[in-house]
Amino acid sequence: MNKSKNFFRNLVKPFRSSSSNVGDNVEDLERIAQQEQKSFLFETLVAATKDFHSHHKLGEGGFGPVYRGKLDDGREIAVKKLSQNSSQGKKEFENEAKVLARVQHRNVVNLLGYCIHGDEKLLVYEYITNQSLDKVLFRHGLEISELDLIVTMVVVYSIEPSRKEELDWKRRYEIITGIARGLLYLHNDSHNRIIHRDIKASNILLDDKWVPKIADFGMARLFPEGETHVNTRVAGTKHKLYKKGKGMEIMDAAIASSAPSEQVAICIQIGLLCVQSDPKVRPDMHRVVIMLSKKHGHLEEPMRPGIPGTRYRRSRLPPGSSSTAPGASVFSDSNSSESTFNITTNTASASTSALASSSNPDPHGKLPMKS
Ligand SMILES: Nc1ncnc2c1ncn2[C@@H]1O[C@H](COP(=O)(O)OP(=O)(O)OP(=O)(O)O)[C@@H](O)[C@H]1O
């Protein structure tokens, strides 16, 4: 019997009621201890995903393929096999993964743990049953940028026709507020401040009750050299409908009659406030959550949104930067004003193209939007 088994046996001795259940108790404690460690055996993941069989492949993003699997205890998981282009060492990866596994919120995908096998690094997430938000949103012939601001998108875009009934205004509003709460948690309330840097519809997963869960958070911690995959595609040019007072015209017709117009207008305006090109004037997530909780009320006029590729968008860090350095994606200083900067940076560029009405916009965002 090895040392750890002895340790557990001694631990359960005082609680033992009969000799027959000692084995069970030891097994339970060992299982709990392993879960606490957050580390998965490679063999466990091989068994869960049927050796990473192609039938189990959910898709492949910028960080590598993702497989669906089922653990022996019945839990469904999604296993992300990280592509091996990170220079991060095993110990650092382990430390960072443990930090990320402590991030727990109703609106954030739970990272159950990690696995290191030779040169391979894997992340194990809870499996989220429904589709990602981008698959539910009907593209309407528009070239939607991956970076569209979620709030505005959920209000504006039509829904996949077969799912129209499912996504009424109430549900859309719950998705919007859920995402905002998840981001607020990542920014302010998790142990380490986490700035996502790649918020987009495909990174919002919906569970069987349509609760939105933010996926792919903290990837900059695992790819600290700054080569993180951040999509920079630009939005289509047809969607230039935003003009002061005409916001309602861009709304999905399917919900136009049932949605309270003030609430919809607030959502669109919050979206525009979040993508102003000057990061200093954008609301932080705390303020966004408060604004969303108001049914009516006056919000300030948004300034002109930023332009993709201008000075506020950043897709890579300087060589040698660490993920915890100032300007990187994770901050431990809860008073830092950088959170607004980064979180809106990536979404900003898209909404800019999607919503701006000017043909010659000011990249510095100092001009108020004109009607
Ligand atoms: N926890 C999960 N539960 C269910 N499906 C998931 C989970 N995580 C990822 N997926 C699915 O796996 C696929 C790949 O996801 P991944 O996050 O790697 O890439 P992506 O979001 O499509 O692209 P990108 O890397 O550009 O963000 C997507 O279809 C995604 O919906």
From TrEMBL:
Domain of life: Eukaryota
Reactions mediated catalytically: L-threonyl-[protein] + ATP = O-phospho-L-threonyl-[protein] + ADP + H(+); L-seryl-[protein] + ATP = O-phospho-L-seryl-[protein] + ADP + H(+)
Gene Ontology molecular function: ATP binding; protein serine/threonine kinase activity
Keyword annotations of the record: ATP-binding, Kinase, Nucleotide-binding, Serine/threonine-protein kinase, Transferase
Protein kinase domain segment(s): 52-371
Region: Disordered, residue numbers: 299-371
InterPro entries for the chain: CR_Ser/Thr_kinase, Kinase-like_dom_sf, Prot_kinase_dom, Ser-Thr/Tyr_kinase_cat_dom, Ser/Thr_kinase_AS
Keyword Iron-sulfur applies: no
Protein name: non-specific serine/threonine protein kinase
Species of the source: Hibiscus syriacus (Rose of Sharon)
